[in-house]
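Table S2 (text version). Query chain:
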Amino acid sequence: MKISTKGRYSVTALYELALHYGEGPVSLKCIAQQQGLSENYLEQLMVPLRRAGIVQSTRGAQGGYMLAKSPAEITISAIITAVEGPIAVVDCLLAEAGAVEQRCNKACTCVTRGIWEKVCDSISEVLEGITLQNLLDKDQQKKNIGCIG
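Corresponding structure-token output:
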């Protein structure tokens, strides 16, 4: 499984919003500049994130985006799932999650299916266990000990 730029850029953009949590809306231009991302691409990413209730938008000259919940309540899993869809390492698991229509006719007898389910469960567990607040805390720790990488 490979997380696409949609997933990676969404996490990066929401990290920037987490840095400004409680300060009001942040413009896409500001996010793009601070994180080195395309403003046009960010605009596309915010649509599913808004639909998922992860971000809120405000129109107007002082408008922009802000987190709809605290950084501690937003998991990396929620972000990735909002923009990428269900997390699965093989197509047959996507069918089970309702992301594709056709269910594999070998699902009940497949010898390897259990392996892919365990891999998928492990990935999901890790992504569910990391919040934007965890990223903020880790970044602060790096700054406190003088580590940049």
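Notes on Table S2: The helical segments are 5-19, 28-35, 39-51, 76-84, 91-96, 113-128, 132-145. The mean pLDDT is 87.
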